[in-house]
Amino acid sequence: MEELEVILLESDIGIAPATRIIQGIRDAWKSNEIEDTSGVYNFLKENLKQNLKEGDNSLKMAPVPPTVIMVAGVNGAGKTTSIAKLANLFIKQGKKVMVAAGDTFRAAAAEQMDIWSKRIGADIVKHQTGADPAAVTYDALEASLSRGMDVLIVDTAGRLHTHENLMNELSKIKRVISKKIENAPHEVLMVLDATTGQNAISQVKLFKRAVDITGIFLAKLDGTAKGGVILGMRDEIDIPVKFVGIGENVEDIQEFDAEKFVDALFD
Ligand SMILES: Nc1nc2c(ncn2[C@@H]2O[C@H](COP(=O)(O)OP(=O)(O)OP(=O)(O)O)[C@@H](O)[C@H]2O)c(=O)[nH]1
Ligand SMILES: [Mg+2]
């Protein structure tokens, strides 16, 4: 049991969930639900799968278009790439998609979004570097409505969750969206780098406080990272993982699958 606890902690699952799981195994052992080591293994796997399956993993779409999806996260998490992947998915479904280049902070950011949008065939609204991201968002909302877009995805600049001014800026962007379109944004996705350890929990908590995150996009799950941190996420924050990123190309996106995720973790 001690070895198992170490393994769980090393996989970034977090102390509270690891303790809960270990206690669950002890209880199951006492009540003869588990009889041998393979029983422990299966119990653990099922426990993690059930935990990750709770809640709704699908994207909430607006009853009347456009569906507005706001995307946030720390620097370099994979936001812009993940937006391109999502936009491409929608376009493949025959939807009209616009992206808002809401990262006006980094000089090359709008250009990066522009390149992606051309490649996948999405409309784009962008301003100069240094412009107010809320203003870009406002223009994109107007353009989405007038051009009859099905989906608008709003990119935002990477920011440190501990930086209060920048988190307030994020809240402002969300308020602009809510004012313009009732019940929007329909999703606020936080892109999380799968290689992030326990720090991810405090990241998500603070982003949730600022913009009420509705789902996680777990990027960079193709590397050595196992993304164990999301196992603890449900216990502590209760936000579902909706998508995973598994590479740098637009096709490298999958809907989150708890079964597959846990099996891969154990392999
Ligand atoms: N291997 C891998 N790389 C990814 C994935 N998603 C994004 N990346 C890479 O991660 C790097 C950062 O991606 P961006 O999309 O620019 O990240 P960002 O969060 O928009 O970054 P900032 O806007 O600077 O905060 C790029 O080199 C991407 O190609 C993924 O799922 N797998
Ligand atoms: Mg970006």
UniProtKB/TrEMBL annotation:
Q: Which GO terms describe its molecular function?
A: GTP binding; GTPase activity; signal recognition particle binding
Location in the cell reads:
Cell membrane; Cytoplasm
Report the SMART domains cross-referenced here.
AAA, SRP54
Q: Where mainly found?
A: membrane
- Pfam families per the record? SRP54 (PF00448), SRP54_N (PF02881)
Q: Name one GO biological process term.
A: cell division
User: Which residues belong to any copy of the SRP54-type proteins GTP-binding domain?
Assistant: 240-253
**E.C. number:** 3.6.5.4
Q: Which PROSITE patterns match?
A: SRP54
Entry keyword Cytoplasm: yes
Q: Which reaction does it catalyse?
A: GTP + H2O = GDP + phosphate + H(+)
The cellular component terms of Gene Ontology attached to this UniProt record, alphabetical and capped at eight, are: cytoplasm; plasma membrane
Membrane topology category: Peripheral membrane protein
Give TM regions: none
Keywords attached to this Swiss-Prot or TrEMBL record, sorted alphabetically, are: Cell cycle, Cell division, Cell membrane, Cytoplasm, GTP-binding, Hydrolase, Membrane, Nucleotide-binding, Receptor
Residue positions binding GTP: 73-80, 155-159
Q: Highest taxon of the source?
A: Bacteria
Q: Which family does it belong to?
A: Belongs to the GTP-binding SRP family. FtsY subfamily.
Report the protein's function.
Involved in targeting and insertion of nascent membrane proteins into the cytoplasmic membrane. Acts as a receptor for the complex formed by the signal recognition particle (SRP) and the ribosome-nascent chain (RNC).
Kindly state the subunit structure of this protein.
Answer: Part of the signal recognition particle protein translocation system, which is composed of SRP and FtsY.
Q: HAMAP family, alphabetically?
A: FtsY
Name of the protein in question: Signal recognition particle receptor FtsY
The organism of origin for this protein:
Candidatus Scalindua rubra
